[in-house]
Write a structure and sequence with these properties.
Elements: H1 2-9, E1 21-25, H2 34-38, H3 61-69, E2 73-82, H4 89-112, E3 117-121, E4 146-147, H5 155-162, E5 172-181
Bound molecules: iron/sulfur cluster.
Residues 51-53, 125, 127-128, 131-133, 138-140, 143-144 line the site of iron/sulfur cluster.
């Protein structure tokens, strides 16, 4: 019942873009690994040590894995965005922003229907203008969106497991999210 409702909400008109592909999986099959998590320390995205939603503040990957595995259902979905050319920085920024807005709006829709869930997104949490890390606790611990990789999820392996394309070809950018509940 909740699965059907969630699938309906994925095409709600208030969402900024469409879902490209989706798959339901058992949370316990989601591949977590220390190797993925340890890549965050290289700080290529510039968010390492800057947010409660990124390492090390987000917590150890085994605890995050066990938290995910404690749920009954997991929905993996992607949004796909078309770029004008290889140098379309504006298009890439808009794609990232639209995916984040999609996630936030979806969580609001779920909250309004009293469906508690955890959403793992792409990139660091941008809910607050300035994160409280590390001076004070997270302002919105149930609304902060952790990136899948920050939790140690091997998104490439997960895509293969689900039969969802990791990459949708040239001049496109694809973002993944995961929702767990139940
Ligand atoms: S909700 Fe705010 S305080 Fe919490 S991780 Fe996100 S940006 Fe930081």
């Amino acid at each position: 019942m909740q699965k059907e409702l969630i699938e309906q909400l994925l095409s709600d008109p208030s969402l900024p873009c469409a879902v490209h592909e989706l798959a339901w999986v058992s949370p316990r099959t989601i591949p977590f690994s220390e190797g993925v998590r340890s890549m965050c320390a290289a700080n290529r995205c510039g968010m390492y040590g800057k947010s409660w939603a990124c390492p090390p503040g987000v917590g150890d990957w085994q605890t995050l894995r066990d938290e995910c595995y404690a749920h009954a259902h997991a929905l993996i979905f992607t949004t796909k965005h078309v770029l004008e050319d290889d140098f379309d920085i504006e298009g890439m920024q808009k794609a990232a922003e639209d995916h984040k807005t999609f996630n936030r709006t979806l969580c609001d829709l779920l909250e309004a229907r009293d469906i508690p869930c955890l959403l793992y997104g792409a990139g660091g949490c941008t809910l607050c203008k300035t994160c409280t890390y590390p001076e004070a606790p997270c302002r919105f611990p149930t609304r902060a969106h952790r990136s899948m990789e920050a939790c140690g999820i091997d998104v490439g392996a997960l895509a293969r497991l689900c039969g969802i394309k990791y990459n949708n070809g040239s001049l496109t950018v694809t973002y993944f999210s995961m929702l767990v509940f139940g």
